[in-house]
């Protein structure tokens, strides 16, 4: 990415003119200027010099009455999925940027580029060429907080030749793996790989954390290989300000420890006598699993680290603020250890949810998880792009042709039936239409029945959508307590001869299923198969756990069906000879 294209060049301009401008602005170049009519090319010795030329000259320097436009020179065949976005407002939050980029399609990577400018620069890779083109068209020149964004293609040397791309151009061979951003250059981890650490700090300590002319925060960023956003302008006049740290788990913890040390020193210097607890902000979706059943997980962290931990009430949440405040009290050393344990639990919950989401997107092509409202849009650390999925064609092809219809029996509190049906049946009709599934409530099994069965019939995507909305509705309508996660039981029927495959030898498969999905999976013993020779598998857990377990069991059943089909296709064995016994995997 060291070759530059210089556009809007005057017909009077010469190689010497351009040479002079580069010399004046102290921009090195490693070859002669190739001047054409209206434009020119030049090579720079490295990417840093190329970026400096773009930052300093593009749209700012005139030559013979024309303002030069400078950008990376990208051959047409390499104008694919990769863009560079420049002139991003310096205080813009990652979450806002993620949301903006996600409007145009699924973002695979978004990495910050180290520059000397006040404004930020990122390299973005979209999953699909057309999405990158749309983002380029819509974002280039658009205003963001009084800054005009500048978007250009950068060479996509890794685009795989997946047949003719759109536009009829021939594919080209990949030349090695995509280059990841170097942590030393301040690149944050990929959006999909981690969530940031968010902490609240007293407003009076923000100046000390930033330091004179930003020296302290720059030093923390450099030492911990992290990107740190201090949201000074949020909640004007508030007693506390949020800080977002993007890095590896170790990088986040090291940056957090350093910030606590700085606050402690500043408190001593300013004779501030109150205790300064560590306050972590976490998305409500993960807090239930952090607390654990009857508070066991939280109690263990407190005991192991010698801290006292409290969590803000659910009542403090709003649609625009889906975060809970986790307050940790203790010594700096103890708080630091507790932060590691708390964030480890939150990341595990996040990764479990993302694994489930990715599995849905792989098994259910084209499923738009973003449209389901699983995470509130723009939630810190949970921007919409996190809910974007690979495009159709990126799945593993588990379903050939039209996806098969499935039947799931989902058990809900009997008192919630009215909320699911809605006034004059409007809600259940809308839900059925939205999901593309048949949804019916089975009659109560007795006067005192505490649960009712919802019968959902439809393909995998319809199951995902319908169940997602039902879980969400129960939470919205407060059928579960303020500190409870919505956990439901689902039943799916499997052929009796396949039940052994779900259980596995000595219960190995079902145990692996439970460990992988965090759901409880039970195949009740001594079941009498129904009239269709089917038995029930019971699955209990929160939404993503339940979904992942359902999909994994359907994978096992699909494998059984394929093996059956293959056996039926084999030529019949001549009489008198014994067929080979198939080995169980």
TrEMBL record:
Pfam families: KH_1 (PF00013), RRM_1 (PF00076). This is Insulin-like growth factor 2 mRNA-binding protein 3. Belongs to the RRM IMP/VICKZ family. It is found in: Cytoplasm; Nucleus. GO terms for biological process: mRNA transport; regulation of translation. It comes from Xiphophorus maculatus. Residues 158-190, 559-585 are annotated as: Disordered. Keywords: Cytoplasm, mRNA transport, Nucleus, Repeat, RNA-binding, Translation regulation, Transport. The keyword Ion transport does not apply. The lineage of its organism: Eukaryota, Metazoa, Chordata, Craniata, Vertebrata. Residues 565-576 have a biased composition (Low complexity). It comes from the Eukaryota. One of its GO terms (molecular function) is RNA binding. SMART domains: KH, RRM. Residues 2-75, 81-156 form the RRM domain. One of its GO terms (cellular component) is cytoplasm. The keyword Transport applies.
